[in-house]
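To fix ideas, we reproduce below one chain and its tokenised fold.
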Amino acid sequence: MKKLSAKQTDINKKTDTLKEKLKKKYEDMKRVLDDDLHITLTQLEMEAEAAERVIEDHMEHCYALTKDIDRELSELSARLEAQINYDKDKSVQTEERIAATLKQTDPELINLDEFKNEQLISLTINLLLFIRSQVPVTKKLFQSYASEVVIDPNSAHPKLIVSPEGNSVTYTDSWQEVPENKSRFDTTLNALSRRGFHEGRHYWEVQVAGKTYWELGITYPSIPRKGKEEQCWLGRGSDSWCVEFFNGSYNAWHRGVAHTLTPVEGQSFTRIGVFSSFPGGLVWFLGADTMTPLHCFCAGKFTDRLLQAVCPGDDNKGTNWKPLEICDASRSGPTL
């Protein structure tokens, strides 16, 4: 118990340290983005201030000209009768000054660099798209662990149809004429992967859109496959882990214990992701559309090879005919 307690303390300490490091990195990223935003906005403000100063100078110029014109008009009116010819020359000069000032202070001559601003918006959009392509970071991380999953038709219950490529499983009311073998489930509607894995980290995704009942997870090859015993069901024994969806409710199962996933009740996911880590002894289920964590099991240490397992469920009163389809987990699924 002392060793387990010490291990728990060590794990909590390492987790807290990692969380602090990640928080710092995210704070650094936010600081970089905030600084870049400040620089960009400052540049735009300086351009606007420069244009505003030019406009103010032109307005002062126009105001001074208006004062001069008012004074000259007063003088012209006073000397109108005595100095007609002089006044005509003066009027011509005044008109020329007015025309020159209007030309110099034309508002159409004052413009922001629209092309540059459009480039700035374009670069900002590209930056946003890049950031979105990297977020959530767990998506990029798990994609690097993507593993190929091929369903073994020799393991599938006779009421399941496995595609020739081994990438989809469909329930049918008809009992298929398939050869009997020790690997085939004869009561539970399960099918297992052909190869599986015994080391490293692996991630795979399953398309569950349009279904009202399904189960999927990870199992040892030793899972019982014959008869009606409860441990033939995924997650009901000690040798398998699964997430189950039934009529809008999610449950995670292991050793026959159900963990109701209340935080995601009412949510509908297009894809479900499953991550397993031999070094960490983890089985982690996610709503792959948004990388929403559903449930995580810590097995401590896996004692055998792991196989991927799927159960498309029965027809559920005519609402559950769509297949479970294995996805290419190395590529992005629905838009985040």
